[in-house]
Amino acid sequence: AADEATVEAVAARAAAEAADVALARLQRALDPPGLWAFERERLCRIWHDWVSVTLDADCPLAADPGAAVTDAVAILADASREECGVPIDVSWSIDEATRRSMGLASVLVLLRAVEELVAAARGSDGASLSIGPAGDDELELVLTPDAARPAPAGLVASAADVGWDLAQRDGALVLRIPT
Question: Phi/psi of residue 95, each to 5°?
Answer without folding.
Answer: -70, 160
